[in-house]
Amino acid sequence: MEEEGVQLMELRDIRDVTILGGGTAGWLVALYAKTVLPTKKITVIESDSIGILGAGEGSTPQLISFLDILQIPVSKLVKEADVTLKNGIKFTNWNNGGKSDWFYHPFVGYGNCAASELSLERYVAGTPAIFSQVSKEEERQDEWCFITRLCEQNKVPMKSIRDQMYSVDNPIFQFEKMGSFSLHFNAKKLASVLAEIGQDRGIVRVEGVVEDYTTDDEGYVTSLKLENGESVKTDFIFDCSGFKSFFSKKFNTKWISAKDHLTVNSAMPFFIDMDVNIPPYTEAVAMKYGWMWIIPLQSRYGCGYVFNSDMIDDEQAKQEIIDFLGYEPEWPREKSFAWEPGYLEEPWKKNVYTAGLSAGFVEPLEATSIWTTIIDWTSAILGNTELMYIKDQGVIDDFNASWRKNQEEVIGFIYAHYMSGRTDTEFWKHYTYENAPAKAKQYLDINNKRAFVVNDFIDHAFFEIDSWSYILLGIRNEKFVENHRLFEFYNFTRPFMDQRYVSFKKLIQSVADFEAISHEEFLEKMKEQ
Ligand SMILES: Cc1cc2nc3c(=O)[nH]c(=O)nc-3n(C[C@H](O)[C@H](O)[C@H](O)COP(=O)(O)OP(=O)(O)OC[C@H]3O[C@@H](n4cnc5c(N)ncnc54)[C@H](O)[C@@H]3O)c2cc1C
Known about the structure:
Blueprint: E1 2-3, E2 6-7, E3 16-20, H1 24-36, E4 41-46, H2 62-70, H3 74-80, E5 84-86, E6 88-92, E7 102-106, H4 120-125, H5 129-134, H6 141-144, H7 146-152, E8 158-160, E9 175-177, E10 182-184, H8 187-200, E11 204-207, E12 210-215, E13 221-226, E14 231-233, E15 236-239, H9 246-251, E16 255-257, E17 266-273, E18 282-286, E19 290-296, E20 300-307, H10 314-325, E21 337-338, E22 342-344, E23 348-349, E24 352-354, E25 360-361, H11 369-382, H12 386-389, H13 393-417, H14 426-429, H15 438-449, H16 465-474, H17 478-490, H18 494-514, H19 519-526
Parallel strand pairs: 3-4, 3-15, 4-11, 6-18, 15-24
Antiparallel strand pairs: 1-2, 5-10, 6-7, 8-9, 12-13, 13-14, 16-22, 17-20, 17-21, 18-19, 19-20, 22-25, 23-24
Helix pairs in contact: 1-8, 1-11, 7-18, 13-15
This protein binds flavin-adenine dinucleotide (FAD).
């Protein structure tokens, strides 16, 4: 149908939405679909025999906003998924200086507060990149960065609300938020809590292995065929089948490898006992052939050595872990997980939209997978559900192009972490400017000429000036440090900045030391109701 001057797009009817896979990706996508498409039939197909990966126990602050949309309280997850709070990531030994060599990439959710007068909340939490430029080399990061100071004291960016004016069911309202945070969780427990919530909300769960599918004349998938002979009718599919990546294999979708840049490709997980105090951060410890994550849950630390399997094997990785710990930990699996870092060139084809591990996985260093391949990517279509109905290849092409751009951004940022100048093994020697991906070079080139400004990152979806500044400062990038010195000489607002910096430091120190509550207190309160 065409009205005068208006070209109407051809639409497809959508009644049945199917999610293939019941891991974190599958259930998060299914719950979002149920939230925004409440009248449609939403079905999750998952296989008990294949199971879920179970790795990936930390995320980014976007998870909290996503849980808000899904109306899943953090307190429920604290009670049922072994959840702890995450204020950011502590990088240890990245300059090859042992345990005393550390810096944080904190979650700073309130933007750059140097620009204007802001509320106390924004002022304190938003430790901006500009203060990393004013800070002195001899100052520790926890002297000027609020979130870092909290981490070092096992505290979270919350303060108690003393005069509670209203009573609410959710215990989180006993606290006033003073910054962004995310969660650590037991991946298996999280998937099962999400599955339970989903089924209570009317999502249909089908157990079985999908082995084939049917299409209509135009190539749109119309049903999924299970091993047991069952068939599930569908109008739109979210492929969340994890590393099996069911549809990308059937469709022969091209994989864009990042292995020439990011060289870790395996992870050996292990568990260790929890200490007395539960840290509110993930620790990423640099090792000889990669790095190790240490994620605190309430009952244990979930850890893993992420390494390059072309350089060492599982046994050597295990030995390096034992040497680091001084004892043998619990190994939840015999063998390491393996992957090829990269992503699908076209995760959206016809009426199949791929999310989670099946769409891509570069590596877990910044815990970006849930954010960039599930939350952000899913919101792009389910936040604009009309896109699912449109039969327009141009729309799909635009989406796939923006996906590729975003994945390259993540690869470039992660690459920069490894450029600390360590040369103690072949692994570290790889991380030079010459081997860097284009996105990393783009920012390293700016940094080689001058200090970053906010607008350098204007087309960035994920990591901006604060993140790049924290990492380059942390790995003691010479040019970044030199730019600070130039900044001291040439910046005419310097006296103003210095004065502001002194008062700022006092403020963040007193709020962190006297107002913020401990991680334990927060977790205990979440469990009270
Ligand atoms: C070592 C490692 C560390 C990680 N760390 C992080 C991190 O810190 N932060 C982060 O955000 N992410 C991390 N990730 C990624 C994380 O695992 C994923 O983001 C996500 O949580 C789980 O992925 P998924 O749901 O896509 O896949 P899975 O959990 O593997 O689920 C796949 C589902 O598909 C089903 N399935 C597959 N094929 C079929 C079929 N043919 N028929 C029926 N069902 C099928 C399976 O049964 C399962 O239910 C990490 C990954 C690895 C490997």
